[in-house]
Backbone:
């Protein structure tokens, strides 16, 4: 059928992936042993969705404490333990693995590769993240870290935090960052080496390009986090000399620099993937390729560089020479330029009358608004005087939550919904997904606005208790979080039910332009029987055009026919 | 160009009753929110409290600038989404325009950048800490009791000239300690929790920490100043009218972080001098008493020890 429209390579390669699926083994054994990027990707996605349930549960307990003033529901020790767990889970176990998992799943399909470059490296990464998460939660039974996700030293040294919880936190962070790093190396090399014939760098899909930018960002930042956490562990365990504790000759600002290089950059790297995914979703909903894609890709690169470099905002108010404040102010403010280009591209993409408000596109449009608020916060935090005033208040914490949770909830879940038919071969339940979006939007907005308002009113960040005048807004924030949690749970139930009981989706449900929609849903182990030659950045739209001009009829799905005899892991059930 | 038939990609298998039920729950939630909101609104939810000093005034101005530009930007975004999704412009012309509008976006971004940068530089020279070059552990503070001399600052950015005094601010788990110099420059007067300062005098704050990281923040007097162990961070405040301002540390410093608040009490210069004198006297008397006790204790101990020795022998 439609495949004939492509220039077929002369030899259709045999299956290049040696997938050790053995139907006599249990499914989880196959999953652990798999070197299929799709299995690795779904492992990461599934794990991140389990993690968000834990994070939501722990966060709601902290909101229970804050719902009433002078509350004694949780002791400060318990409060900060749960608070640290929930925030760590949101960033390290939910948002980053969710996006990394989607990237691992989609990248080879999108660039026309039968496998990723180093699939076992990605598998290692995925399982390191899983065991990092297990390590983190194992500490709950011993003694958790009572700081925050923004670990500060010397509070984290043995003298001030003698419990083993901090050690667990550092080990977990090392494993997760190591896992992300291994995965990022695979992604970057795959992008560089495995593209289909004809897919020049101008023709790579925007999401694939943003995956490459994200991967380079992780390669630049994650090793520093690993080093910093190792140094902190050495200081804690042996106590021979001070590294970060000034009492024994260390330097607390050194810790800030090393730690924030990753910690401040991670939300921006999340945003890079979010921007890429949203560009694809909106383009598919408008039946075209992303507008001004060359400018968009440049803007994504600039966004990543400026986002990472703006880590110097953590020096505002700190004892460093004032010239640095000016330098980081300019770097931070410069981010508005790529941001304007990105927004302009999105608006252009959805203009033109063909836009269908599909559910992923609705998630993306909500993300656009939350993203705008993130950028306003970013401008505020780039101005030293205002940053010193806002960052330490609950406004600063709300802004962090927006960057991590807002990005993952709207762009991340949106991307998951977009590729859900490809991953599972089935459709999700549309009305329930829309309802979940409504609950997520109202709940998150209520919680973040209430917290921002508290911060502007002088409420310091991440307090475990308070008195006087702040109760209504804390209650609103707690109720908003509860509503968003119900939305997220509804979405997860939707995913679980639809992945086995949903309506068959077909291979190309969105009529999108990129190559992953050319293969069956779910894709076979080797992805492509024949890899099409790519002539533009939306090859499937080219194909539709050619079918239309050849036959005079509109093209429907243009995916290749399902491959027989090469079952995906899902279908290997016995 | 091909005009794709807008197909509804996913069949809606809706359960109308359950959806209605859940929508009702959502509505009820909105009603609850609406009931709580007026209470929240009366607390002045969207902007900072009135500034107590010129630094805080600059901060408030910056806040309103960013809030205003941000509100316009979000409004513009919503309008352009609404327009883009409704208008039926020919897709080909849009594709041709997109590169052009990308260039326009760069220009618009650059204009915004320059505008914010100008505002930022103005605010920067107007406010905040007059940081000296880094000073490490062991550097002694320079005693600067109430003087009229102008301060020299290696960065060239100075706090206002005029009468000034120095106060050492020390963050500790979980309170703030303030030290004052006497006329000879001895830092022997101190106070916990409350920073008491004279009105109309530039108070230089040498902020440090003796344990973990803290941050000194009084919202109505400006931005926070980090108390980093091993460093002396210099900031300044100047309040022209007597009054009381409350603040809180903004760095989670351990379990009792929530109790680490502070108060700034601004007195008239006369009241302040009187307060300082009382405080000094009280501390001196207490120290003398303590000294006498220690001495008598030591003597008693010595006598006891001697007798014990003798008995032992």
Residues:
């Amino acid at each position: 059928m439609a495949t004939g429209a492509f220039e077929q390579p002369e030899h259709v390669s045999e299956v290049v992936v040696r997938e050790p699926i053995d139907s006599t083994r249990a499914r989880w054994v196959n999953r652990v042993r798999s070197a299929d990027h799709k299995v690795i990707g779904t492992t990461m996605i599934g794990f991140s969705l389990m993690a968000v349930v834990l994070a939501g549960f722990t966060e709601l307990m902290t909101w229970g404490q804050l719902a009433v003033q002078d509350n004694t529901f949780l002791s400060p020790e318990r409060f900060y333990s749960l608070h640290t767990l929930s925030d760590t889970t949101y960033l390290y176990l939910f948002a980053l693995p969710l996006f990394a998992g989607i990237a691992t799943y989609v990248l080879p399909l999108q660039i026309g590769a039968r496998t990723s470059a180093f699939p076992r490296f990605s598998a290692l990464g995925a399982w390191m993240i899983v065991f990092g998460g297990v390590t983190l939660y194992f500490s709950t039974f011993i003694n958790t870290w009572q700081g925050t996700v923004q670990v500060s030293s010397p509070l984290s040294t043995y003298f001030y935090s003698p419990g083993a919880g901090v050690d667990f936190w550092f080990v977990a962070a090392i494993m997760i960052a190591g896992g992300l790093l291994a995965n990022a190396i695979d992604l970057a090399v795959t992008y560089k080496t495995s593209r289909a014939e004809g897919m020049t760098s101008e023709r790579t899909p925007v999401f694939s390009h943003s995956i490459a930018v994200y991967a380079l960002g992780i390669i630049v930042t994650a090793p520093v986090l690993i080093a910093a956490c190792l140094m902190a562990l050495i200081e804690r365990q042996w106590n021979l000399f001070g590294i970060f504790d000034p009492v024994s000759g260390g330097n607390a600002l050194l810790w800030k620099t090393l730690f924030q290089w990753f910690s401040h950059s991670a939300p921006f790297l999340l945003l890079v993937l979010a921007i890429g995914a949203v560009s694809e979703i909106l383009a598919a909903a408008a039946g075209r390729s992303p507008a001004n894609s060359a400018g968009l890709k440049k803007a994504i690169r600039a966004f990543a560089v400026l986002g990472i470099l703006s880590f110097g905002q953590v020096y505002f108010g700190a004892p460093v020479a004032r010239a640095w404040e000016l330098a980081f102010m300019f770097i931070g403010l410069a981010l508005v330029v790529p941001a304007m280009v990105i927004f302009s591209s999105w608006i252009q993409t959805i203009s033109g009358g063909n836009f269908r408000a599909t559910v992923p596109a609705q998630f993306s449009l909500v993300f656009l608004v939350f993203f705008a608020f993130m950028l306003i916060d970013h401008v505020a935090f780039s101005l030293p005087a205002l940053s010193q005033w806002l960052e330490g208040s609950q406004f600063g914490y709300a802004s962090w939550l927006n960057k991590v949770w807002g990005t993952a909830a709207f762009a991340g879940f949106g991307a998951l919904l977009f590729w859900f038919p490809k991953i599972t071969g089935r459709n999700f339940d549309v009305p329930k997904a829309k309802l979940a979006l409504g609950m997520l939007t109202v709940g998150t907005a209520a919680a973040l606005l209430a917290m921002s308002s508290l911060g502007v009113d002088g409420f310091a960040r991440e307090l475990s208790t308070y008195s006087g005048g702040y109760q209504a807004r804390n209650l609103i924030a707690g109720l908003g979080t509860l509503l968003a949690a119900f939305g997220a749970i509804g979405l997860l139930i939707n995913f679980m039910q639809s992945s086995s009981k949903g309506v068959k989706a077909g291979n190309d449900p969105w009529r999108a332009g990129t190559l992953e929609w050319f293969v069956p849903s779910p894709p076979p182990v080797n992805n492509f029987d024949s890899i099409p030659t790519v002539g533009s950045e939306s090859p499937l739209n080219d194909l539709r055009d050619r079918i239309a001009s050849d036959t005079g009829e509109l093209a429907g799905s243009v995916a290749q026919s399902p491959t027989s005899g090469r079952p995906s892991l899902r279908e290997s059930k016995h | 160009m091909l005009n794709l038939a807008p197909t509804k990609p996913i069949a809606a298998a809706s359960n109308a009753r359950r959806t209605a039920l859940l929508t009702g729950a959502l509505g009820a939630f909105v009603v609850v929110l609406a009931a709580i909101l007026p209470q929240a609104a009366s607390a002045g939810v969207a902007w900072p409290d009135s500034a107590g000093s010129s630094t805080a005034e600059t901060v408030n101005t910056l806040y309103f600038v960013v809030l205003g530009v941000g509100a316009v930007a979000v409004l513009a975004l919503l309008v352009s989404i609404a327009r883009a999704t409704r208008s039926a412009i020919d897709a080909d012309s849009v594709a041709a325009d997109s590169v052009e509008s990308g260039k326009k976006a760069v220009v618009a971004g650059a204009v915004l950048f320059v505008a914010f940068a100008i505002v930022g530089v103005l605010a920067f020279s107007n406010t905040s800490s007059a940081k000296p070059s880094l000073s490490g552990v062991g550097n002694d503070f320079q005693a600067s009791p109430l003087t009229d001399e102008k301060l020299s600052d290696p960065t060239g950015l100075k706090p206002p000239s005029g009468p000034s005094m120095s106060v050492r601010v020390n963050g500790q788990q979980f309170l703030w300690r303030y030290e004052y110099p006497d006329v000879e420059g001895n830092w022997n007067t101190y106070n916990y929790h409350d920073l008491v300062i004279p009105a109309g005098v530039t108070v230089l704050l040498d902020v440090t920490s003796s344990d973990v990281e803290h941050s000194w923040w009084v919202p109505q007097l400006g931005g926070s100043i980090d108390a980093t162990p091993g460093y002396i961070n210099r900031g300044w405040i100047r309040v022209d009218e007597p009054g009381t301002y409350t603040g809180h540390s903004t760095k989670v410093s351990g379990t009792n972080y929530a109790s680490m608040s502070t108060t700034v009490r601004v007195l008239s210069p006369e009241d302040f001098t009187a307060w300082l004198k009382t405080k000094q006297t009280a501390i001196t008397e207490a120290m003398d008493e303590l000294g006498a006790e220690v001495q008598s204790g030591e003597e008693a101990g010595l006598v006891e020890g001697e007798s014990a020795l003798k008995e032992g022998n």
Residues 315 and 321 of chain A are 9 Å apart (CA to CA).
